[in-house]
Amino acid sequence: EVQLVESGGGLAQPGGSLTLSCSASGFAFDDYAMTWVRQRPGKGLEWVSSISWNGGSSYYEESMKGRFIISRDSAKRTAYLEMNSLKYEDTAVYYCNAYVWRDYWGQGTQVTVSS
Q: Which residue in 62, 76, 69 sits closest to 30, CA to CA?
């Protein structure tokens, strides 16, 4: 059974940093790309970033380039999203996603940016 479990969310000040983790199990982690998606209050799902199966390529939504860094650790079967220079508008529930024959999602982790 594919499982994705996010952690690392919380409260951060504007300009601060948080690192989210996504622990994966139930599939060949090294064979699949990983993606982060978020849902801001009252909004739909918004793609944030993706990383290729081997970590060799990464992609970011334009507004996150230069602020967010996606990475993965094969040994830990974990994907990460390092978020820097956080803005109020980064407040959202962040979800980890993997497409393994179909979309799988974690339960999400809340990130709140507030002073």
A: 76
